[in-house]
Write a structure and sequence with these properties.
It comes from Leptospira hartskeerlii. This protein has one domain: Beta Barrel (Lipocalin). The protein is 9% helix and 66% strand. It has a 10-stranded antiparallel beta barrel with strand order 1-3-4-6-7-10-11-12-13-14. Strand 8 and strand 9 form a beta hairpin.
Amino acid sequence: MFLLKYINIWILLSLLLLSTSLYSKDKDQTTEGYTISKIRITNISIHSATASNAMNIVNSRGLNQIGSDSKEIVKSSISNFQGQGLEWETDIRHSNFIRTNYFLSHASLSSGNNKLNDLSTLNYSASGSPVSLNDLSFKTFSNNTLITSRIAFLTDFFFFENSSNKLLENLALRIGFETYGNTFTASSKPYPYVGTSNGTPYSGIDSTYLEKVKFSEVFGNAVIGLNYKFNLTPLSSLDFGLEYFQSFANDSRYENRSITLYISPSISFPGGSKIGGIVKSELEGFRTSLGYRYDFSEITFFRISFAYQESVQKIKETNLPDSSGFLSNNALQFVSTVIPPMGPFPTARDTRSQIGIEFGYKY
């Protein structure tokens, strides 16, 4: 499992640091009745599974198209999203044994062009004559945005707080829940295409078609992890964190709007269509963090941090419709277009890294 190698790295690094003479007891971890609030500004880079699944969701009708006169398959190339975010976090130490953590984050990011190669075939009859089309479009999507947010309620248990082994006093087991959401939007630009019609080649640039994609998803996740903090000097400290999360609930929605400009010798007018539906997905992953804190005084501090997150997002089912059945009198094709997508459903890996600067206040 991809998580194991990071757990091993975290354990080895912790053991190395704990074996040094830098360790000293953490004042925050042993004081009852305190609250720490933190505001963190982050710079984030994301390779988005949300964007990848949105661009490849057309492939979820692959099994429906077996034996059909109409087939379509896409292959995407997704650019990394970059941007800044804001995080708010509050720790409340109720006793030496229990601490609760409230967390809220929000970030708006953008990326370069996302590319989508769209291969479609279509066989039908027109005025009694068979027509066979094979078309390959090289679509480019711009105005790509990703809005991501997370709300978490977590509890830390210091099971070794009264241990005779001083190295274990500041080790905490973390358990909790979070709501995790992403919204991806993109719109296409004029794109080139090539193909054949009854064996006759054609090519061109389509500047009359505009496609807008929106994919929103919200996950409810269970979280379990470990965190540790120790002092380097009376005014500075290091902290580590590792969390595993898995979804137990999901609500996602996909929408594709297309606008076509119809041009005739005497008039031009727009037309459009909209396809949308509910998507059910699941999520599993981990996140790890490393931070350095410097105390300006007993109640204020500054901290810099690095965090990395990796997860796998799988679409399990969707009710997205297919509107191509009307082009054929093939009964099998008509049935395949009115039933929900049968798969294969897209799966994508999501990776996130961020650097944060924060200011905190203890009271």
